[in-house]
Specification:
This protein is 68% helix and 0% strand. With 894 residues, it is mainly α. Helix 23 packs across helix 24. InterPro entries: ARM-type_fold, THADA-like_TPR, tRNA_methyltransferase_THADA. It holds the Pfam family TPR_Trm732. It comes from Ailuropoda melanoleuca.
């Protein structure tokens, strides 16, 4: 696999108008050391990345300037040009952020002039009347408030103008959007502009400090009038179902935020919003400005989406921490959830359902914040036995298998928060006396295991009360969950729940134990059911348990591998075949030996067998490995081979024992009748060859440096040159066995396997280029006899064999198979021509491969001329025209 080249950063270069360019030229000094000279060199570049380097030099240069330089007209002009540059850049251009970051470090003596420049340039932007330029101005307002002190100061100075611009732009864009009804392309852009304008308005109120005092201003001030105008616009957006729901959602945030900023006294805000949600607004008790701006919200026929997004805005924009809103805030919290419950039974649209689930999850978060310092009355309303919590649970049970994954995720958050709410609201001191939790656990355990939502909720419950209480109610729960892992749709849920449980159990046992005996209980609970499935389970169960559950268990407790091996080896050694589990297995059963190899293979692939050689010596015997390599069950053979070939470290040296076992495996397994098994064998052996190639490169470097490697890396149990020679001997011996398997009359499976493995060898160990060394080259072991063996593969009746043989020849250098004997070359060509006229289809195919091979060898023209001369001589002075036609035809084909 090649290394993916990192994509170079593309930055659009900044430019300035002709007038600013002439100004910089007139201000630049002869030495080229002042700010104008720096900016002039910067703007003359056409590469944005290079310009970044110049932008970063601006502040260091000004820091060297005299502090009285703030009065220098040249610097003032440069600061004005910098403000223009910043506002001209696209919001996505990295130069914009780099410039803002640099100017944040501007020396204090230049700040006043810089702020004036930004204010002046921003004012020019705000005066634009081009509707399609509004988006750029809006983006600039947003950028100015994002970690940019000069920009924020400029916006603050022009607050009245900024508010007026936002109000004007939103009105005009909204009207333009209405005109283009039905033109979805134009409307998409316009609605996106509306969304950005609404978000910038929210950001403005949140980040500009003057809004904290806005209620003190008179209702006739321009700022107040613009605020009222914007509030009216957002109320209209909130109620307009023709707009994108993201616009409605953001407008809901804006409405509540503006009410929070404008309404006085703030203590009455919860009551006001409650009346909106309950549709019980008393128009005589609210200010006229509010009624004028939010009249749509004071009606009794507010749409479902409007009410939903009002709830979202309330939960997001009000301060729920530490009970800051008092009892009226608690009442508002309860009113919100009742409104959400009502909407839940009325809303059927999937996108609104998703919004509702997120808002309900947000409500539970707010409830947790309030409960941390709430009144006893609220705790009574939000403990586990309350009607609100019961309705929340009902919502979870109803939606935890919803088709939308995002909605299912929200039900998990809601359930977890329900437990947290109950903990804060309950008065009972312990879990044993907590009837709500006990009933909840029992009800979940009674559900069928095919209910997917059950798994996530049980995981939350385990985190809350610990696995001990669950095991007390259902001691066999590990086995129950493992039983359902034959169903692919349930496997991810089951494995995640099991991981949550056994990790919780391990932490609990370790914290309570005084010695190491706790691990026996943990093994009995979690490992023994696993081993039973590996030995007795059906094929799907075993596969999914090995792929999903076993790696997680070993990651949690690598030391448990020894326990697994001990139990499984004892079973495999049992003469009766039924001590713990069935012993060696049979054609239809993997048995304990299959389980043992699966565990070892998984452990090694995930890095839990740090030393392969030590693993064989300490965990499993050589005889056991050989039993696995020739087991009757094909998957046991594959797992054993995988144990030898796979490693989490691609440079791990292949040990002498592994090479011996691979040769042993090759002897008995090339003739596998299953195509799937043959493919797996070839794939695993290719991984082994890659390990040999990559580890050999490390060995070559060690040999060259004469350095000794650390023992834990296993590279210097012997001298690198010895390991390299063993590699060469192994590969050479392996190739000999593979070529021996290609004898005339060998079966298709044997030829397929041998040729595929030889092809992998030729691919993994390429012809060295330059100073690169390779430990083995297949071409060095190709003699005339082996070449002839490959050529004879073209006579096979199976085209797949022909293809593999041809591909292998193509991977070899031409010099390896170069013909020296022209007679043999002509004989091969004549054989190809003769086969091409055969009535047997596979003979014609053989001819095509022979001719292709001759073309690749650049041997066809000489063969062709020699053949035509022979034919011409045989014809004598006869009809030479036929010879000419044949010659031209063949040359045309070539």
């Amino acid at each position: 696999m090649g290394i993916k080249k990192k994509k170079e950063m593309q930055v659009t270069a900044l430019t300035i108008c002709h007038q600013d360019l002439e100004t910089l030229r007139s201000l630049a000094d002869v030495e080229g050391k002042n700010l104008a000279s720096l900016l002039l060199r910067c703007v003359q570049l056409t590469d944005g990345v290079s310009q970044i380097r110049y932008v970063k030099q601006i502040v260091p240069l000004l820091e060297k300037a005299d502090k009285n330089g703030a009065c220098d007209p040249a610097i003032r002009s440069c600061l004005d040009i910098l403000a223009g540059i910043y506002l001209s850049l696209s919001v996505k251009n990295p130069l914009k952020k780099v410039l803002a970051s640099s100017l944040n470090g501007l020396p204090e003596c230049f700040l006043t002039e810089a702020i004036q420049s930004f204010t002046s340039r921003l004012q020019e932007e705000l005066n634009t009347t081009d509707l399609y330029a509004y988006r750029k101005v809006t983006d600039n307002i947003s950028s100015c408030m994002e970690n940019f002190d000069l920009g924020k100061a400029g916006v603050n100075n022009l607050l009245k103008n900024v508010l007026h611009f936002l109000q004007k732009s939103l009105i005009e864009i909204s009207e333009e959007n209405r005109k283009f009804a039905g033109n979805h392309i134009v409307q998409t852009q316009l609605m996106n502009d509306l969304l950005v304008g609404t978000r910038v308005s929210v950001m403005l109120v949140q980040k500009i400090q003057d809004f904290q005092r806005i209620h003190l201003k008179t209702s006739s001030s321009p700022t107040w009038q613009s605020m009222c105008g914007l509030l009216s616009i957002f109320t209209k957006f909130l109620s307009d179902d023709d707009l994108l729901q993201t616009i409605q959602s953001t407008s809901g945030l804006a409405v509540i935020l503006f009410i929070k900023a404008m309404f006085h006294p703030p203590e009455k805000i919860p009551d006001l919003i409650s009346s909106l949600l309950l549709r019980s607004v008393d128009c005589t008790s609210i200010p006229d400005w509010f009624l004028n701006c939010c009249r749509r919200l004071c009606c009794t026929d507010v749409s479902h989406s409007t009410l939903l997004f009002l709830c979202q805005g309330t939960l997001t924009m009000l301060d729920w921490q530490n009970g800051n809103m008092g009892l009226s805030g608690e009442a508002l919290l309860l009113n919100i959830v009742h409104a959400l419950f009502t909407l839940s039974s009325q809303i059927k649209e999937s996108t609104l359902e998703l919004f509702l689930s997120r808002i309900l999850a947000s409500w539970t978060n707010s409830a947790i914040h309030v409960l941390e310092s709430s009144s006893p009355s609220l705790k009574d309303n939000l403990n586990g036995n309350s009607s609100i919590v019961q309705r929340l649970l009902e919502y979870v049970y109803t939606h935890w298998e919803h088709p939308l994954d995002a909605l299912r995720h929200q039900t998990k958050i809601i359930f977890r928060n329900i437990l947290q709410m109950h903990r804060l609201a309950k008065e009972s001191p312990g879990l044993a006396a907590d009837r709500f939790i006990c009933d909840l656990a029992e009800s979940l355990l009674r559900l069928e295991w095919h209910v997917k939502g059950k798994y996530a909720c049980l995981g939350c419950l385990v985190d809350y009360i610990g696995i001990g209480h669950i095991l007390a109610l259902a001691k066999t729960i590990p086995s129950q969950i493992l039983e359902v892992m034959g169903d692919q749709s349930l496997v991810p849920y089951a494995s995640d729940l099991l991981e949550t449980m056994f990790r919780n159990h391990k932490s609990h046992l370790k914290s309570q134990a005084v010695d190491s005996t706790w691990i026996d209980e943990w093994h009995e609970t979690w490992v023994s059911p696993l081993l039973f499935i590996l030995c007795e389970g059906n094929l799907d169960q075993k596969s999914y348990v090995i792929d999903y559950y076993l790696p997680k268990l070993l990651n949690c407790s690598p030391e448990s591998l020894s326990y697994m091996v001990k139990i499984l080896q004892t079973s495999a050694d049992a003469k009766t075949g039924q001590q713990f589990f069935p012993s060696l297995g049979s054609y239809n059963s993997r048995g304990a030996l299959g389980a043992l190899m699966a565990c070892l293979r998984t452990a090694r692939a995930h890095g839990h067998l740090q030393s392969a050689t030590d693993a064989w010596r300490n965990l499993v015997s050589s005889a056991r490995i050989k039993q696995g390599l020739i087991h009757q069950h094909c998957q046991v053979r594959i797992d054993t081979l995988g144990l030898l070939c796979e490693s989490n470290r691609s440079t791990e040296v292949v040990s002498t024992e592994e090479m011996q076992w691979i040769q042993f495996f090759i002897t008995y397994n090339l003739n596998s009748q299953s195509p799937g098994v043959r493919q797996q064998i070839c794939s695993l052996l290719k991984k082994l060859f890659c390990r040999i190639q990559e580890s050999s490169q490390v060995l070559y470097k060690l040999e060259q440096s004469r350095a000794k490697h650390e023992p834990e890396n296993e590279l210097t149990k012997q001298h690198p040159s010895v390991s390299l020679q063993q590699y060469k001997n192994f590969m050479s011996s392996l190739c000999s066995r593979l070529f021996e398997a290609l004898f005339p009359g060998s079966s298709y499976p044997t030829r397929f396997s041998a040729l595929t493995i030889l092809g992998s060898i030729a691919e993994v160990f390429p012809i060295p280029e330059g100073q690169v060394q390779t430990v083995y080259q297949l071409s060095h072991d190709i003699d005339v006899g082996r070449f002839q063996t490959l050529m004879e593969c073209f006579t096979s009746t199976f085209e797949e064999v022909k293809i593999l043989a041809f591909d292998l020849l193509m991977k070899l250098p031409k010099t390896v198979v170069q013909f020296q004997d022209s007679e043999k070359l002509r004989g091969l060509f004549e054989a190809a021509l003769e086969l091409s006229s055969s009535t047997k289809p596979y003979d014609c195919v053989t001819a095509s491969y022979l001719l292709n091979f001759l073309i690749w060898q650049d041997a066809l023209p000489s063969s062709l001329f020699a053949y035509l001369k022979t034919q011409q001589a045989a014809c004598g002075d006869g009809d030479k025209s036929a010879i000419v036609v044949e010659r031209n035809t063949l040359m045309g084909l070539y």
